[in-house]
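task queued by scheduler; priority normal; single chain, no ligands, no partner chains; default sampling; output format set to structure tokens
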Amino acid sequence: MKRRLISFIIAILITVSVSPSARAMSTVDPKLLRGADYTDIPALAARLDAVFSGAPALYSDPACSVPASARIGYRDVPVGRTLYTRDSRGNVYSGSSCYIYANAVYSALFGDVPYHGESSAWQNSRRVLGSAESVSCDLFLSNGVSFGALMRTTPNADGSYSSNYGHSVIILSYNKSAITYLEGNGDGRGLVRVSVRDWADFDRALLKSKGYRVSFIVQPTAGYYDALRRGSVPKNHDFVGYFSQKYAVGYRDVSLSAWYASGVYTASSVGLMNGRESALFVPSGSVTVAEAVTMCARFLSGYYDDRHDFSGGSSWYEPYYAYCALWGIDTSFASPGSAITRADFARLMDRALPQKARTDSVLGVSFSDASNAQYPYIYALAKTGILRGDGGTFRPLSPITRAEAACVLARMADRSLR
């Protein structure tokens, strides 16, 4: 009798110790995972198979030269250890645990890194949902959440993401009864797993039990999926193909025979520069720091064709400063209204010019008044043919004129002018 009583008590304790979450969740055997079970796009299925096998574009060093394994079913996402990933443009991002793992998987699948959710930096993605306090199949269906979406949760009431709080998962599939998702650090000890939960438990485990809400859900655009189905992925935007002529311009103070005419009209017609009042361009006028930051932002937005909205802000130039900040471009070197020097203008434009837009074709560049050690960004652009000196000098500390700035921008946008 005593033995039976002990067994009964043990059974009760075991039942109580198994949480509803543990009973409602199951994990998929890594041996059974196949990308083709989650997508009918062969190219995407192959990428997903690579992720399952431990290749989600994670690295252990900032140079992204040492791969960090992240195999399904293993504790390969070290808790708290900083890891790195990069997007298709070569931009490097860092973080730890589920946060960086989810970004790395998303990058491996779609070329983008949602990171903190700055949509202006994405090439192929869009935000479909944010700030929800609860999730359900109906909510996902009504917002069009699809395969590969990255969902991030947060404790913040406004839905913003805070440091390493919350959780980040990749949605693999769902139906009315259950949702399947991929996560790193799934058990708090680094485990990489594919989990299946019913909706009530998914909502409880990822949101309600922790007081979290959805920070955002990001997924590829329909166009990106279509391109994958056609067997091609959209390429980075490149030169005049994406800097097409948008505006008919004419300036009373720019003669067609002027050395800077083609630069002025190219930069203006593609929307990188504007004229001044009364149909004047004022080619000899100086460029302010705020104007240069604006040009930098317009170039980036035009190159990636993200159609960024630059309206709003406490001043006319604040949205352009904010956009450059998203790209990690330092704009704090001088006051907005001061005239920008030729060196600082070169530094800004060097940061804006993507690697794929560079063609180093000018050899033996040398400026007597600007050393490569002091001004490496000047030489980086000079080697592409975008910057040109003046009789062997560069005059780095002189203000750049509007005509000179226009020619630099035109060569950045159209390599035939280099």
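post-processing summary
- The mean pLDDT is 87.
- Residues 239-417 form one domain.
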